[in-house]
Amino acid sequence: PGVTGTLIAQKTVGDTDYVLREITVPPGQATGWHYHDGPVYGYVKQGTLSHYHADCASDGVYPQGTVVREPGGPGDVHLGRNEGSTPLVLEVLYVLPHGSPYSEDVPNPGCSFQ
């Protein structure tokens, strides 16, 4: 199976949705290229996240116990990969305009990997 997401909690305050999800990325899998409509904060609960931006360069490797912040918007296209041998588990807080999807899928920006 591929990447899975489980809803933990969701609350709307005014025009903002606060959503907490657990994302599991199996070894050798990736999230697909995407961006978010608002800021997203991820805590690496297990495994290691390899994070890439649309220029195909790595912008960080996040081991267990670290936090990654994604500012959001179409200028922040990125991909998360699990290049390790154990499942990657992320606790992710989405801060999104009310009614927005968790992510906006985009085509591969021209990188040699998915």
Can you walk through the features of this model?
With 114 residues, the chain is mainly beta. Helices cover 0% and strands 52% of the residues. It is built from no helices and ten strands. It has strands at 4-13, 16-25, 34-35, 40-46, 49-53, 58-62, 67-70, 78-81, 88-97, 104-105. It has a five-stranded antiparallel β-sheet with strand order 1-2-9-4-7, with no helix packed on it. A three-stranded antiparallel β-sheet has the order 6-5-8, with no helix packed on it.
Summarize the structure.
With 114 residues, the chain is an all-beta fold.
Output the keywords.
mainly beta; globular; 3-stranded antiparallel beta sheet; 114 residues
Helix content: under 10%
Q: Find the count of extended strands (DSSP E, 2+ residues).
A: 10
| Strand-residue proportion | over 45%
How many individual helices? 0
What is the end-to-end distance? Answer: 16 Å
Round the mean pLDDT to the nearest integer and report it. Answer: 97
Rg (C-alpha, Å): 13 Å
Q: Which structural class matches the secondary elements?
A: mainly beta
Shape label: globular
Spatially, the strands of the biggest sheet line up as: 1-2-9-4-7
What secondary-structure arrangement, pairings included, does this model have?
Elements: E1 4-13, E2 16-25, E3 34-35, E4 40-46, E5 49-53, E6 58-62, E7 67-70, E8 78-81, E9 88-97, E10 104-105
Antiparallel strand pairs: 1-2, 2-9, 3-10, 4-7, 4-9, 5-6, 5-8
